[in-house]
Amino acid sequence: MASGGGGGDVAREAAGVVPGASGWYGSLADSAPVHLLEHLLVSVQQGSGLPWWLSIVAVTFSVRTFITLPLAAYQLVIISKVEALQVEISELAKRLRYEVSVRARESGWTEKQSRFQFQKNLRRLVSQLYVRENCHPFKASLLVWVQVPLWVSLSLALRNLSLHESAVQGDLAAGGALWFPDLSSPDSTWILPLGVGLINLLLVEVFSLQRQNPTRFQKLLLNFIRGFSVLMVPIAATVPSSLSLYWFISSLIGFSHNLLLRSPAIHKLLKRPLPGSETPYRDLLSALVNKYRK
What we know:
The protein is mainly α. The protein has helices at about 5-15, 25-30, 30-50, 50-85, 85-105, 110-135, 140-160, 170-175, 190-210, 215-235, 240-260, 265-270, 280-294. Its main location: membrane.
């Protein structure tokens, strides 16, 4: 445990120094959200008396369970509502196309004018449907807008606390476990970095199974995320173990939440249409096996 001052003083001392950091990165590492998370991490560790590695696990579990899991469930509800509207939108588009064609003949519109009127009115009608069902697709992106800044801020907070100038760096250096006893140094065994890469790749593959006929853009996006997941391995091998531990636990919890949200019981709780099968986990395993058996 760090001596002298409370968790707030310790976090302030740790936050003020980011060696070699300047410009936008330095500003981000020295931002209020990052300092707030430093205070949270130090307060949890000092208040609970848990070793640092377990404190990081506890904070990660709490953040993923009480912040991102509800948002992931909300995203699921929004997406299901949008999907349920597709039949109605298709019918609206057919009727609107007929009405526009009639009006075009009466008014002498060109093909370009007809297309403009069709698209403008279709957007208006679809927007009205989204308002009626309270399910604008942008709401489904709320998870990303919260999760990504939170992940970056917590990563920077752990990096700041792991620096030599940090008041708790000595505690982190002795606060690891098993093969990573020093949380302020990289994991020389590469076990945590490889775990980060493997879990993230597994998440990508599970997500890809939800897209039966992906578009070209979706394929490019999936390949980009696969590449980024692989790139995370050497990155995680060069940062303090506190970060690679956080990344590994965060990805592991995210994967477990992904599986949880596939449960028919959760779908019933969210009043969402049930998945096509009562055995989603068995089906997922079979789909993964079949995908790589080809």
